[in-house]
Amino acid sequence: MEHVTVSEEPSAALMYHVERPVFSEGYIDSELLHRKKRTSKSLQRRIAEHLRCSSEKAKSVVFGFLPILTWLPSYPLKQYLFGDIVSGISTGVMQLPQGLAYAMLAAVPPVFGLYSSFYPVLLYTFFGTSKHISIGTFAVISLMIGGVAVREAPDSMFAVNGTNASQVVDFEARDARRVEVVVALTTLVGIIQLVLGLLRFGFLAIYLTEPLVRGFTTAAAVHVSVSQIKYLLGVHTARFNGPLSVVYSLDAVFRNIASTNVVTLIIGLVCTVFLYIIKDLNERFKKKLPIPIPGEIIVVIVSTGISYGMVMSENYGVEVVGKIPTGLLPPKIPDFSVFPNLFPDAFAISVVGFSIAISLAKTFALKHGYSVDGNQELIALGLCNFMSSFFHTFVVTASMSRSLVQESTGGHTEIAGLLASILVLLVVVAIGFVFQPLPTTVLAAIIMVNLLGMFKQLKDIPALWRTSKIELAIWLVSFFASVLLGLDYGLVVAMGFAILTVIYRTQCPKNALLGQIPDTGLYFDVDEYEEAEECSGIKIFQSNTSIYFANSDLYVSALKAKTGIDPAKLLAGRKSQIKYAKRDNGERKAVNHCSSVKKNAVVLLDVELGVTHEVVAGPKKQMDHVYTNGQMNENHTESDSEDDFFLQRLTPIHTIILDFTPVNFIDSVGAKCIKSVSQQLLFPKKTLEDRLVRSGLIH
C-alpha cells in the first residue's frame, strides 16, 4: 500500500512523502504480474489473414492509394475554390519560367522542362497527400540529372568526324541522346520510389538528417550558380561533372572571360537586379500584397519581346532558347539498356527527391493541422516520375519557392496544383513558340535569384556552433564534400559521416559523477554545479549512452576513472593483505604457543566491499585510520603495534550506484561487462570466508 502525504505549510516548498513496500524482482514476477497467454499463429494463417479481403479492407486500400477520393467529394466550393484558383494561377505563372530554366540544368532542351511541369503535377493531384507542396522541376534534382546526362552523353561522343580538334558538336544528336538518358533515369527513379513506398520504406528520409540536407542543398546551390555563370556572361565552355567540377568550371569560365558577350551580360545583370528587388518586395510586403508580384514571368515576357524586336540572336550574338515545338509529344518507351549504368545515381536522386518533398510536406501539414503519409508520398512521387517518363519528362520533386507561393496565395488543396498544370498545358499547346527568342541569360538570372534562399542556409553555421558541434560537423562535411566531390559522391560521404557521428556519440558520451543538491532529492553533475555534493562513501555514476558491444569496455574504463576504483587493484590488494595476514598469524601462533595468554580473534566482514578487519583481543584499542561506512574514523588512540589490525579497508567508498536513466538498451556483451565489474566490486562473502579459512585466518 502506498501512502502519500502533502505538506501544506505556506512558507515551505510543496513536498511529497511517499511510503511503499520494497518489492523484489522475483516477487513481482511471481506474485504481482502474470503474462498474458498468447497463442502463436502459424505462418500460413498469418498470410491468409493478411490476404483476406473484405469490403472495409478494400475501401481502405483504395482510399489510401487514391487520397483524392477522401477530400474531393466534400470539397467546399465557396470556401476553397477562389483561393485555389488564385494560388493555381500564381504557381503556374511561376512554374513556366522555372521549368524552362531548370531544363538547362538537366542538360535537355527547355521544352522538356515544360513537359515536366505538366504531367507529374497532374498525377500528384490524384495520389499525393500534401495539400500545399508544388510538385515539378527543382534546381538540386535538375543539376544531379544534368550531371548524369553529361557523363553518359558527353560532347566528345558527338564531335563531327569523330574528333575534338575543331570542337564542332552535333548538338541535335547530343540533345536527343541526353533526353533518352534522362528519360531512362526518370523511369528508374520512379520504379525505385514506387518499390520503396510499397515496401513501407517511408521512414528512409529520417537518415538524411536536417543539417545534412541543408548542407547538401547549399552545396548544390554553389554548383548551380557556377554552372550558370557562363550563360550570364555569354561564354561557351564545356560542362564538367564529377570531383572538382566546380573548380574546372570556374577555370574554364575565367580562361574564356575575354570572349564575354557584353549585351548578354547587361541583360543578365538587369534581370538579376530586377528579380532581386521584386523578391525583396514580395518578402517585405507579403502580408499586404494579395498575391506575390510575378517578377519571373514579367522578366520572361519583356525580355522575350525585346529580344524578338531587336533580333538579338542575329544582331548581337545573344544565345536564345531556340526551337520549342508546339503541342505534346507522343509517348515513348524508355531505353532500358542504360539502366545498369544509372542505378546508383537513380537511387541517390530518388532518396534526395523524396527527402525534400516529405520535409516540405510535413512542414505545411504541421502548420495547417493535417497529416501526410510518408509511404503514400513515396508511392505518389514514384508514380509521377514513372508514368510521366513515358511522356519525355525528367525527375521532379517539391519546390520550396513555388510551395511557399502556393500556400501564401490562398491554396487549400491539390486543386491549386491541378490548375497550375493546366496553365502550363495551355502554354505548351498554344503559345510555346512565343518563348523561342527568350535569351538564356534571363533563365540563368531566374535560377540564380531563386538560389538566394539556399545560400541563406549559411546562417546555420553560427547557430549550430552554439547548439551542437556534432551537427555543425555534419553540415560542413556535407557541404564541402558535395562541393568538391560532386553531389553524388558528396551525398554518400555525408551519409557515411552522419552514421559515424552516431557511433561517435556512443563511443564518447558524457560521463559524470552525480551529487545531491542539499535539502533536495535532486542529483546533478558535481563537476558542473557547485551546489552538487557527493554523498559520503557513495559514488553515483552516469553515462548518457546505451551500453553495447562497441562501447562496453569504454563504459567500464570511464566507471573506473570517475570513481577512482579499479577492481583489479582492489583484488590484488586483498590478496596481498591475506598473504601478509597469514604470515603474521603464523608468527602469532608461535608466540602464543609459548605464552599462556590466548588471544581470540574477531573477524569483521564488510559484505558490501568484501573487505575484512581483524581486531586482536586484549585491551580495547581503536583502529588507526580505519574506514567505517565510507568515513574515516579519526577518534582513535595510538596502536602499540601494526599487528593489532592487519586487514584494513582498501577504499573509503562502500557503495557504487550506476544511474541507468539515460540508457536505452544493453546488449548481451554490455550486460556481461556490467556483471563482471559487479562481481569484482561486490566481493562475495562466501568466497572471502573460504579464502580466509584456507589461509588459516579463521576457523
Provide structural commentary:
- It is a multi-pass membrane protein.
- Its main location: membrane.
- It is found in: Membrane.
- By secondary structure, this protein is α+β, with helices and mostly antiparallel strands.
- Helices cover 56% and strands 7% of the residues.
- The chain has helices at 25-32, 43-51, 55-65, 68-71, 77-105, 111-116, 119-127, 139-152, 171-198, 210-233, 245-255, 262-284, 295-310, 312-315, 339-368, 374-389, 400-408, 415-431, 440-450, 452-455, 460-467, 469-485, 487-507, 552-563, 567-594, 668-681, 685-695; strands spanning 3-7, 15-19, 134-136, 397-399, 511-516, 523-525, 538-543, 601-606, 611-616, 627-628, 631-632, 655-659.
- A four-stranded mixed β-sheet has the order 6-5-7-12, with helices on one face.
How does the SSE layout of this entry go?
Elements: E1 3-7, E2 15-19, H1 25-32, H2 43-51, H3 55-65, H4 68-71, H5 77-105, H6 111-116, H7 119-127, E3 134-136, H8 139-152, H9 171-198, H10 210-233, H11 245-255, H12 262-284, H13 295-310, H14 312-315, H15 339-368, H16 374-389, E4 397-399, H17 400-408, H18 415-431, H19 440-450, H20 452-455, H21 460-467, H22 469-485, H23 487-507, E5 511-516, E6 523-525, E7 538-543, H24 552-563, H25 567-594, E8 601-606, E9 611-616, E10 627-628, E11 631-632, E12 655-659, H26 668-681, H27 685-695
Parallel strand pairs: 7-12
Antiparallel strand pairs: 1-2, 3-4, 5-6, 5-7, 8-9, 10-11
